[in-house]
Amino acid sequence: SILEDEKIIGTLETLKSEAADIQQKVEETDVVMAEVESVTNIFRPLSVQCSGIFFAMETLNQIHYLYQYSLQFFLDIFESVVTSNPNLNNVTGTTERLKIITNDLFSKAYNCIGRGMFEEDRLILANVLSQIYLKSSGSLNLDAEFNYILRATTGLQKNAAPIKGFTERQVQAIHQLSTTLTPFKNFASYVEENADAVLQNVAAVSVEPMLCWDGAETQDPITQALYKMIYVYTLRPDKVFGACRKFVGTVFGEDFITDEQLDLYSIVKDEVKPNTPVLLCCVTGYDASGRIEDMATNYKQSLSNIAIGSAEGFSLAEKAINAASKNGKWVMLKNVHLAPGWLVQVEKKLHALKAHPNFRLFLTLEITPKIPINLLRAGRIITFEPPDGIKANLLRTFNSISATRVNKAPNERARMYFLLAWFHAITQERLRYTPLGWSKKYEFNESDLKCACDTIDRWLDDTAKGRDNIPPDKIPWDALCTLMSQSIYGGRIDNNFDQLLMNDFVKRIFQPATFESDFLLVEKIDESGNKLAVPDGLRREDFLRWMHKLPDTQTPAWLGLPNNAD
């Protein structure tokens, strides 16, 4: 019988033992899977954020054709945050590490993507990242509010009842908001009853919204900041970027959006691979090649410059790339927008290139839709345009000049550079108000600034003759003013009125009185009658501290224009 068959009984005993082992393994696997599921749940919000950021990147080309990004670009961002993040050093807790990774992911994404966007579009990116962050955290549901901001200009009520003192566009927007978002259901009636107060509020240089929506006093800071942005967007859409900046600062922190100078060398050295081209995309009239040349000189890096546009240029470029990719040198091809067809070959060549780790390829181009999309997606895009605002312009100018050069004797050199930075900012910012600022769009750019710096250095060195100080009245002001107004900057001007304006600005800014602490740069910067005096100090650091303390937004009065110029 079966019971007497020892072989079968032995087999059954073995199966019984193995079944017990399997059951134990299953229980252990259940514990492991539960732990995996627990860890997965912890990191699931991060995965949602990653997918949100990537798909947001993919849709940015709807704003501008230049904004093309690849999956590899995003993976490089993620890898740098997770594997080579100094903020994670000595942090072992999962929750703490996840918080650091999340914050650094959004910051890194904004910086890497934003450097390839125009200034006015970067806040849109920051706003989208804020929406992704808030939605993935699950703490706030603000989809309706974000949708209103994105679609507020569609479906405006054309037959809305007029409100005294407000434009037709404002009235339409007021009624649209009242019928779209529940907390603003009484907004139209509030504006009608308090028209004078609201008009005075939105006429201010820096609009601080009136808390006139339902539940405003008890809202959390993030929701209140978003509602303030909606208020400004409805009544003063030209001021919405300031409100958007405050909202993003509330979500991510005040340091999320900064005016710091782009560290081009760090990007080239640490973030760019040898077969990844660096695309320096410039607005018309702006030339970024000088930045690369200065960087190569400062870091003693061999650089080959080749202008594209002829058959000879193509041949030279091919040879330069082949040679530099073997010995680790740099190559810069200028004005490649003149040969968009040839760029397809360059992209294919780089894809198959086995280059020296130190090899880098820079392409300077004016922004045009003829640039191949595959090249944009394969490269690292950096846009160059005049900074937006006096503060940003001053900071970019001062940060683009080395501390060694600014602080070099005589001690008056640093102040002369500051005066030049102020003058350069005024000339460029007035272009935004053409034909009121200047009669036409002149191409004042960094080449003018560089030439002016060299001019100041030469005249100061000749005057100082090695001394640490020179009296301000001994500086050759007349020579400097003539060169600035007639040649360096004035050489671009072809209108008599603009030339008179240029002469006046030069004489007012470049004079001995600017070395006095009570010299006024702007006699009235706001409605309160506040004044802006030249900063004290003799070192680069003194002027940078003063610049950082300036308000983020400035009125047209800073430029010598009426405050209603915008």
List the helices and strands and how they pair.
Blueprint: H1 6-59, H2 71-83, H3 94-114, H4 119-137, H5 143-151, H6 168-180, H7 187-193, H8 195-202, H9 221-235, H10 240-252, H11 264-271, E1 278-282, H12 289-298, E2 303-307, H13 311-327, E3 330-334, H14 340-351, E4 360-366, H15 373-378, E5 380-384, H16 390-399, H17 403-406, H18 412-429, H19 446-464, H20 477-488, H21 496-509, E6 520-522, E7 532-533, H22 540-548
Parallel strand pairs: 1-4, 1-5, 2-3, 3-4
Antiparallel strand pairs: 6-7
Helix pairs in contact: 1-3, 1-4, 2-3, 3-4, 4-10, 9-10, 16-18, 16-22, 18-19, 18-21, 19-20, 20-21
Question: What do these coordinates show?
Answer:
This protein has 566 residues and is mainly alpha-helical. It has helices at residues 6-59, 71-83, 94-114, 119-137, 143-151, 168-180, 187-193, 195-202, 221-235, 240-252, 264-271, 289-298, 311-327, 340-351, 373-378, 390-399, 403-406, 412-429, 446-464, 477-488, 496-509, 540-548, and strands at residues 278-282, 303-307, 330-334, 360-366, 380-384, 520-522, 532-533. The chain is globular. The protein starts with 5 loop residues before the first helix and ends in an 18-residue tail after the last helix.
Total count of helical runs of at least 4 residues: 22
- Our Rg estimate from Cα atoms comes to 30 Å
| Residue runs with pLDDT of under 50 for 5 or more positions | none
User: Percent helix among the residues?
Assistant: 40-55%
Biggest pleated-sheet summary = 5 strands, parallel
Averaged pLDDT: 87
Give the number of DSSP strands: 7
Strands of the largest sheet, in order across it? 2-3-4-1-5
Strand content: 5-15%
Distance between termini?
104 Å
The 3D shape can be described as globular
